[in-house]
Here is the input.
Amino acid sequence: MNDTNESLNSIQYLFFILDDEKFALKTNDIKEIVDLGKITKVPNSNDCIKGVTNIRGELIPVVDPKIRLGKDESCVQKRTSLIIVNILNPLDQKKIPISIMVDIVIEVEEVNEIDILPSPVFGTVIEEKYIKNIIRYKDEYISLLNINMLLDIDELSNNNKD
Here is the structure.
């Protein structure tokens, strides 16, 4: 048997909860996970931008993905965390950190490629562009978020409602 083939056919994903729904992100897209700290509002920003937070001297925008996904605004809970990802800024082609608020971080697990399924083209409440794939995991189907669409810099820079 070749253990190398098996490890090449699986990818690590972070599973988390928004409202009562599970979602996932590739761990390659994630810079770090931190506890929710103080958020400072930014005037005239997009409704989905909660503000900025200071993480080790760096100001990082905080996005409420629930608003981007067409849900009600997030309520801060005891286990609310920030998932920080690096997104490519189209203006200067540099990666910038942006965080998303999540209700609960569940776990990081490896998922085999055969359990990564195409996203449905109908029947979802969430806009299709935000869902990259569906993951079959532990007898559940979990939406894999398209983080580049969810945190699209051009859309987030627009100060109108989504």
Summary: The chain has four helices and eleven strands. Residues 131 and 145 are 5 Å apart (CA to CA).
